[in-house]
Task: structure prediction
Amino acid sequence: MMLALDFSFLTPAVISGYIVKGFFFSLQLTFIAMLGGIVLGTCLALMRLSGKTWLVMPAAGYVNTMRSVPLVMVILWFFLLIPIVIGRPLGAEISAIVTFTLFEAAYYSEIMRAGIQSISRGQVAAGYALGMSYKQTMGLIVLPQAFRNMLPVLLTQTIILFQDTSLVYAIGAYDLLKGFEIAGKNFNRPVETYLVAAVLYFIVSFGLSNLVGILQKRIAIVK
Amino acid sequence: MTTWDWQVFCKDTIDGQIVPGCFGGPGSVTYLDWLLSAWGWTLSVSALALLVALVLGLVMGVLRTTPHRGLVLLGEAWTELFRNIPLLVQIFLWYHVVPALFPPLRAVPSFILVVLGLGLFTSARISEQVRAGIQSLSGGQRMAGLAMGFTLPQTYRHVLLPMALRIIIPPLTSESMNIIKNSSVAFAVSISELTLFALQAQEETSRGIEVYLAVTGLYFISAFAINRAMLFVENRVRVPGMIGGGQ
Result:
């Protein structure tokens, strides 16, 4: 006997009451962690490529540690450690934003490192030959090209990041999935709410990855 | 910062008394016993899910490279479906939605459902790698196989897959390490694996740092062991004469 699905409880009032708040937080978390992660990740990548041991070692250690621990454990670690370090509890939402920014920085840094390494050495030499400093060569010549080459990969990582935001479930932050879960409990319709949640995540992720595919064709540097 | 208290693992999980020797006897379970059993659950979930993912990922990846439009579409649809829904949501679908829609599945233990959820999620990624591996071979290989009078399945079995599978060992290694990390979402449906142990033992003992360090260490060791095992496989199956190949 099939269970009869009934989606009629999902009225606009229910959606704006439960779902929109969570969806907004998921997007906010994705966006802040993307921007912060790319900035921090670029710094980490520059450190790793600097050739100075005292910069390479800590950056490599940080990236490799973050990449070998499950994200759920990283979320739990930060939720445990932040209150100890700053001396007062921080809400689950703020804790999640800090965690994701620092965690994603490790992944973005690997992408930026590959991007910087893909720029030909002649470009750097040309910068120095023109009398530019390291900062100018990086900022005006290397990074803009690396960023452009890697934009599709950075955005693909951001789609993964958006999917991973659902893991804040572990510390009870109110994200998109949590919104659906609470609505499902209150109306005793968990099956329907999980289905709608899956469809919504699918539409956002699938839609974005198709956009990235189109973008990839349009921005490719002709060589 | 407070001092370390590693004695916490020697405590009995019920009365909180320190058990001599750290391992509980009959009728008594210490946190160390619990930690090791949780590690066992993590490894079991990961190993079985990896098996599911390799088989299905191989099939779907191969389908996407066949000349049959219908099979290609099936493989693509599979990959997109399981790649674009967050793993945690997929686990909830298997746990809450699938048994509700298909009542015979209600008797299936949640361990199996998590294995299927993690396995199918990972199969989408492995199918991508298998497809990329096959497409990286020169087109002449397939034509040569067919020209020799091999059927299409024989061409895959004896010509394309032996090369493609060797090529994709490095990405498969990182996917196998990912599966250990991803198995941590099983905590959400009450599988007694490492992450759930971390959450519950932290709550019961208030020794969060020690508990998390032990759990993180075990995740490290597990992923590292997989890494070594795959390197061993990679060296054993290396084809002489290929780039990075032996003598």
Observations:
- Chain A has a mean pLDDT of 91.
- Chain A has eight helices and no strands.
